[in-house]
Amino acid sequence: xxxLKTLIGTVRIRNPIILSSGIWGSTYSTLNRAYKxxxxxxxxxxxxxxxxxxxxxxxxxxxxxxxSILNAVGLANPGYDAFSEELREINPxxxxxxxxxxxxxxxxxxxxxHMDNNLTGNTPIAYELNxxxxxxxxxxxxxxxxxxxxxxxxxxxKVRTKVPIWVKLTPNITNIKSVAESAISAGADAIxxxxxxxxxxxxxxxxxxxxxxxxxxxxxxxxxxxxxxxIYDLYERFGSEIPLVGxxxxxxxxxxxxxxxxxxxxxxxxxxxxxYDAPQTLIHNILNGLNEYLSREGKSFSQLxxxxxx
Length: 310
Prior knowledge:
The chain has ten helices and 16 strands. By secondary structure, the chain is of the alpha/beta class. It has one domain: Alpha-Beta Barrel (TIM Barrel), CATH 3.20.20.70. The strands form four sheets. It has an eight-stranded parallel barrel, surrounded by six helices. About 50% of the residues are buried.
C-alpha cells in the first residue's frame, strides 16, 4: 500500500481527499460521518456573521446529462455563534476546516476570533476563506475579485489567528493569478481552486429561469477541465511556493491524478457525492486507484505533483 499521508503546508492529513464546502458540512454528525467513511479531512458549509436564509427555491438543480449541479443556495447558514456550538460536538479525531465568508476584513476577523475562542481543544486544521461564491450579494465573488481587498482580508485574518488560512478562489475572473498573488503576499497558507462557475438554465416550457435566484453556480464533472487548467496555471506561476488544493468535477481516481499532475497538493470532492448513498464507495475507489497508479509508476504521491509541467 502506497503512503498517501499528505502535507498541506503545516497541516498533515491521512490522505489527500477532502470533503469540499457546501455539500455535507452543515452539522457535526455529517462531518463526523464523512470523516469516518474515509475522507482525509472535511470542510464545513460556509458560515457568516449573521443567520442567513439564502435564496428562494428551487435552489439546487441536478443536471444528469452532464453529471453536474446548478445551485443558488445563497450561503444559507445559522450564523457563526450558533454554528460554533455545533462544531464543538465534532469528534476530536476529525480533521476539519471551517469555511467562512464576510463582506469585510472586520467581519472575517470577528468570526475567526469567535471560533478560536469557542473551539479551544478541538481546533480546526484551517479557516477556508470563501472569496468566491458567485451567487450571494456583497460577499464571496464580490470581495474576491479585487486583489487589494483580498490582500486586506487575508492579512487581517493572519494576524488574528495561528490557525492556517486557506483561500478559495473564483474562476469567474480575468486574471486569477493576480488575486492568488495578493493572497500569497498577505500570508495565505494554501490556495483552494476552484469554486463554482456562474451559470443558469431556462425552462423552455414555462419560459422562465429554473433557479429561484435566476442564476447560480455550476459544479460537477462539467467544470473539471476548467479546474485543472486553473491549478496548472497557478502551479506554473507559483510552483512549490504554496500548496494548491484542487476542486471541481472530481469523481474518479483518474480525475484526482489529473489535478495532482497539474500541481495540486490535495483535492476536494463535493458534487460527485450525489451519485452515492454513502461516500465510502467513492473514496475507496479513488484511494485504491491512486495506490495502484502510484505502484505502477513507481513513485510516491508527493513525487507525482506537477509532473505535467516537466
